[in-house]
Amino acid sequence: MISLVGTWQESNEPSPNSVLPNPKKRFRKQVANNHVVLVSACLLGQPVRYDGQSKVADLSCLVNKDITLVAICPECAGSLPTPRVPCEIEKDMTAGDILAGQAKIKNADGIDCTQQYVEGSRFCLRMAQQHRAHHAILKEKSPACGTHMVYDGQFNGTLKSGRGVTAELLHQNGIKLFNENQCEELLAQLEKS
Ligand code: SF4
């Protein structure tokens, strides 16, 4: 079975629109017995994207498996509002540069949101460590969650290879990353481990 744990906010208060249960006291028992996978909250139907919408993904291949999904939204965890002005990593820079303090991530109005992205990323890493998650399914193209592709910093829809800030921090800490179209690949990995 899939167990859902709603943890994208540090307060542990459920969202008004949450579809996820939040039984904090049952977390450890569930987690101890199952594989644990971090999932971008928008893929699970949470309306947390910059435009106030979700982006539901087909994760049905994980049904009837012993897996706990932990919902995260790094942008929300970093205290960015929803809806919000979209952000992109500076042109010619990477998420690794941001985590190293050598680049910024700004929104389309030119406002520096680097601190919020870094703090949100650290929160999600703490969630992974707390729940002993070694895998994550994250929303491709997001400046926080992108696993292979992100927008190139020009706000014109052009993509480039690279990870979002949270994906990069999780990767640096040994979490295996998958996007919303790689559910089968993730399952194959979990079945081997
Ligand atoms: S892609 Fe990541 S940061 Fe963006 S809304 Fe979804 S969970 Fe939040």
Task: Describe this protein's structure.
This protein has six helices and nine strands, in the order βαββαβαβαβββαβα. With 193 residues, the protein is α/β, with parallel strands linked by helices. The protein has one domain. The strands form three sheets. It has a five-stranded parallel beta sheet, with helices on both faces. Strands 4-5 form a two-stranded antiparallel ribbon. Strands 7-8 form a two-stranded antiparallel sheet. α4 packs across α5. The chain is globular and about 45 Å long. The two termini are 17 Å apart. Residues 9-32 have low confidence and may be disordered. Bound molecules: iron/sulfur cluster. The site of iron/sulfur cluster (SF4) has 12 residues, from α2.
Within the largest sheet, what's the order of strands?
1-3-2-6-9
Bound molecules: iron/sulfur cluster
Low-confidence stretches: 9-32
Helix content: 25-40%
The total domain count is 1
Q: For the report, how would you describe the main beta sheet?
A: 5 strands, parallel
**Form type:** globular
Q: Count the E strands.
A: 9
How would you state the average pLDDT, rounded? 87
Separation of the first and last Cα atoms: 17 Å
Secondary-structure content class: alpha/beta
Number of helices: 6
Rg of Cα set: 16 Å
H/E topology pattern = EHEEHEHEHEEEHEH
Beta-strand content bin:
15-25%
Region (Disordered): 1-22
Protein name: DUF523 domain-containing protein
Biased composition (Polar residues): 1-20
InterPro entries: 2-thiour_desulf
In short:
The chain has helices spanning 27-33, 74-77, 95-99, 114-131, 165-172, 183-192; strands spanning 2-6, 35-40, 67-72, 87-89, 105-107, 135-138, 149-151, 159-161, 176-179. With 193 residues, the protein is α/β, with parallel strands linked by helices.
